[in-house]
Write a structure and sequence with these properties.
alpha/beta, six-stranded mixed beta sheet, two-stranded antiparallel sheet, binds zinc ion
């Protein structure tokens, strides 16, 4: 969308969403809740909300794991076509319930313009009701050191962490997280 103030988001016309993990990997688990299942629910609702605001959205097939989703993205989109976002739920112990429920984050890539998107989204999280501890970090600060979703995809890519598995897990809360995700994506993209 050419109206975005963010340089990397001026050319892309499509938002691509993917649920984190998949295949034999459920991601974080707080029984009976599984990150993968929640990420799928959030992705589907976020896509609906964005589409209702006129944004073109594609969803990476939920049958694929991260590796396959990256391949799917690269078969279908090149740099400048799309903004691709993988959706996760975070996991940590010792947080207050409110913090764990409402703290959201975004990982960005190596360029300054990718960081600009990260900083914008972090502010937008907070403006839209996420916890003030919400963050933007380079993927080098992730526990894996670098994130394939960000490094190996051809289009501009970021990774969202929406609340913690140790916070609220009910359907209404997942819908609230989808509302936050769609709001920050809309604000950054348009
Ligand atoms: Zn995850």
């Amino acid at each position: 969308m050419r109206t975005s103030s963010l340089r990397l988001l001026q050319d892309p016309t499509v938002v691509v969403l993917a649920a984190g993990h998949g295949g034999s990997d459920s991601g974080a688990v707080n029984l009976p809740h599984k990150e993968r299942d929640q990420a799928i629910a959030i992705v589907d609702q976020t896509a609906d909300l964005l589409r209702s605001q006129g944004i073109e959205v594609e969803i990476a097939p939920h049958s694929e794991d991260t590796e396959k989703s990256i391949q799917w993205v690269n078969r279908n989109f090149g740099f400048g076509d799309a903004w691709v976002l993988e959706v996760h739920r975070d996991s940590a112990s010792g947080l207050s319930s409110d913090d764990a429920s409402r703290r959201c984050g975004i990982y960005y890539g190596t360029s300054e313009s990718s960081k600009d998107v990260g900083k914008f989204v972090r502010n937008a999280y907070i403006l839209n009701g996420a916890h003030p501890n919400s963050w933007a970090r380079p993927d080098t600060a992730s526990r894996f050191g670098r994130l394939g979703w960000i490094r190996q995809t051809r289009p501009v890519a970021h990774l969202l962490e929406l609340g913690f598995m140790q916070g609220k897990n009910d359907d209404a809360h997942l819908s609230w997280l989808a509302k936050i995700a769609s709001a920050v994506i809309f604000d950054a993209f348009t």
